[in-house]
Specification:
This protein is an all-alpha fold. The protein has a domain at 11-59. It contains 3 helices and no strands. The protein has helices spanning 11-23, 28-55, 67-71. The longest helix has 28 residues, at 28-55. The termini are far apart.
C-alpha cells in the first residue's frame, strides 16, 4: 500500500530533480521511492556487517603474509 507524504524543498532544487528524473526516463516519485528503499536498508546493511564480523571474530589477522603466501592456491 502506498502512502502519500509531503516534503518542502527549494523550488529550483525540485525543478532540477524533475529534469534529472526526466533524463533518466523516470519520475521524481519513482526516484524518491528508490532512494527511500536504499536509505531504509542502510541500517540493515550495517547490522548485517556487524553480525558477520562477530561470526568471523575467530580469524586472527595479525600475521603479515608474504606475496608468495597470498598467491598460494
Amino acid at each position: 500500500m502506498l502512502k502519500n507524504i509531503t516534503f518542502s524543498a527549494d523550488e529550483n532544487l525540485i525543478r532540477k530533480a524533475r529534469e534529472k528524473a526526466h533524463r533518466e526516463k523516470t519520475t521524481l516519485n519513482n526516484s524518491f521511492r528508490r532512494w527511500l528503499k536504499f536509505y531504509a536498508g542502510k541500517e540493515t546493511k550495517s547490522s548485517d556487517y556487524i553480525q558477520l564480523m562477530k561470526k568471523l571474530d575467530y580469524v586472527n589477522a595479525d600475521h603479515k603474509y608474504s606475496r608468495d603466501e597470498l598467491n598460494e592456491r
